[in-house]
Every structure is written in structure tokens, then in C-alpha cells.
């Protein structure tokens, strides 16, 4: 009997330490090999690097990451594990995960399970033990690019994977917002204070918490809700959420264009900021490798203030295309791109960064208070 128990333990240990092989093949022919973890499967998406030191679980569950193979430049991932209390949505949205060094033994007191087990259950492949610094430098030099990520319990042949990667298309060519927006209407704190309609383009739960914390009743509607339906809720203001992909593909733009005629207070965040600008007649364009970090410096125009902000986007508003009634509000201190706009006369505001995600820890939460002041 003792011999059987010992043998069973050995088999379990061998099963838990089974080697997985991982390959990341970029569309330009560049290949990175490493150790696989998470699910044994294949996926493809836009390979994007993020320089955040913390908040990895929040990032993985951010709908703005849909369509992305996420590369973490922070060297050690997994030591904090996974706590569902920190989720920004009900599930992971990344297509794949790439890290330098991964540990399967979380040491944080709040951890409920490892990232490996979490990604495996979510059918998301991941790869470690590769040069993420070299990969990030490659993406900075050549721009973000589609990639193929394959994890298997058997050695992988590179040649067919390279050929497959060269045929990949840009995931931003499809309407990613339609895939992350909730199809149902949700009401938070009904009958409590002012009514806010939140147009869900891939909203983070942190955004909803910031609104409800200020005593607002939040009505969360799908991205394709027509203007007439939005107005039927008799809102005191409208918020357009963050989300993934190309803003020009969002049907929300035409809805917001109609709603602006009602002169209701508006706040656009992230993708919502870009949608607001498009609805007002401005243009957007794609950055070479985007802003994906927790330390993007934003200068408030007309002041000497600079705020550290959390950002996760690949597109920006073309500041030169703003119509005369609109003015830039914030600009990025690194590259001079637009980070915020506001109307000269109406209560319309938009910020590219995430005021609900404060690295400092409350840095730009005041954006919500300014929005509330517009109610009169």
C-alpha cells in the first residue's frame, strides 16, 4: 500500500512538470522560441508590449486588450498569482501572453490560483523564457505587428509556423468593439442620484466603480444602442467607455454624433475619447507602437501640471483636425500626441488615458468630478 501511494505521487509530479514548447512567429518572419504554459493551443493577434510593473491581472481582463498577444516587459510574472477581486471584466480578453520569466508558485496572500492554471482554463496560450526586451525593441523599431503564438506538449517545427505567420492579417481590420460589448442592458444603483448612460464599447469595471462611488445611477447599454434608445432613459449625462481596435469601425460614432445635438454632458475615455472626436468631425490615426503602460506623462494645456497616467491604446486623435469649437486639453509629454479634448462652449470632454486606473494612486480621478460639475 505505501508503495502504491509513493508511485501515485511520482506520477502526479511528473504530470505537473510536463514540458510545454512555445513559439511566437511574427508576420515579418522573426521567431522567438521559449517554454510554453497556459493552454496547449494556437492563436494569433497583434503583438503589443506593455511596460506596466503591476496590475497584470487587471490588464489581462481589460477588454481593450482584445485582439492582442500581450508582451509584458516586466521581468518576473506570476509571483502575485490571480485574485478575481481585481478583474476588470468577467474573463481574460488577451489572445496570448508573452513573458520573460514566469513562476508557477504565487506568494501573494490574496492569490487564488496561478496564472498558468487560469490561462489554461481560459484556453489562452502563453510563452516564457524568451528575450522580451529584444522583442519590445523590435516592436519599437518596426511597429506592432500580427503574430502567431503556438504552445504544444511536443516540439514544434518552425518552417510551417513562419509561413502561416506571414499570411496573418491585421486584427484591427474587424470591429473588435462588437465582440467585447455586452449585448444586454445593466443598471447599477437604480434610482440613485443623477442618471448616466454608459455606452459599453468594452468598459472596465473600474470605470463603473468610479461612477457609482459618486452616487450616480449608471445605465450600461450596448455599443450599438441607437440615440433614441439612449434618450429614452432621460439621462443627465453620457459616458463613452474604453475599448479595443480601430475607432473608425465603431457604429457608436453615428450615435454619439446625434446625441451631441442634445447638449448633454459627455465624457469619453480611451476609445470613447476617439469616438467623441470622430463624432465631432475630427480624425484619428494609428500609432507606431501605441501607448501601453502606467507611466505615460500628460501635460494639461495652459498649466504647468503633468500627470502620470495609465494607458492602453494604439490609435489617437489627430489634434490638427479638431474643428474650431474644440480645443486640446492634454498632450503626451513623450511624443506630443493628443491626450484630451474639450468643447469651447458645450459640456463635452474626452481623455485618452484611464482616469479610473490611477498609478499614483488617485492622479486623474478629478476628471470624473469635472464631468459631474457639467450637470449644473
CATH architecture of the largest domain: 3-Layer(aba) Sandwich
Tell me the name of the CATH homologous superfamily of the largest domain.
Class I glutamine amidotransferase (GATase) domain
How large is the count of helical segments?
A: 11
CATH topology of the largest domain, what is it called?
Answer: Rossmann fold
Number of strands: 19
What string gives the helices and strands in order? Answer: HEEEHEEEEHEHEHHEEHEHEHEHEEEEEH
Mean pLDDT: 93
Low-confidence stretches: 1-16
The residue fraction in helices comes out at 10-25%
Spatial extent as radius of gyration: 22 Å
Characterize the biggest β-sheet.
10 strands, mixed
| Biggest sheet strand line-up | 10-12-11-13-14-19-18-17-15-16
Termini separation comes to 78 Å
Which descriptor suits the 3D outline?
A: globular
Helix/strand/pairing class, anyone? alpha/beta
Strand content: 25-35%
Count of individual domains: 2
Tell me, what is the CATH class of the largest domain? Alpha Beta
Structure description:
By secondary structure, the protein is of the alpha/beta class. It folds into 2 domains: 15-169, Carbamoyl-phosphate synthase small subunit, N-terminal domain (Glucose Oxidase, domain 1, 3-Layer(bba) Sandwich), CATH 3.50.30.20; 177-373, Class I glutamine amidotransferase (GATase) domain (Rossmann fold), CATH 3.40.50. The protein is 24% helix and 31% strand. It has helices spanning 2-16, 56-60, 115-121, 132-142, 158-166, 177-180, 205-213, 227-232, 252-259, 271-279, 366-373; strands spanning 21-26, 31-38, 42-50, 68-72, 76-77, 96-98, 101-102, 125-128, 145-152, 186-188, 195-200, 217-222, 237-240, 266-269, 283-300, 306-318, 326-332, 338-343, 348-351. A 10-stranded mixed sheet has the order 10-12-11-13-14-19-18-17-15-16, sandwiched between helices. The termini are far apart. The model is unreliable at 1-16 (pLDDT under 50).
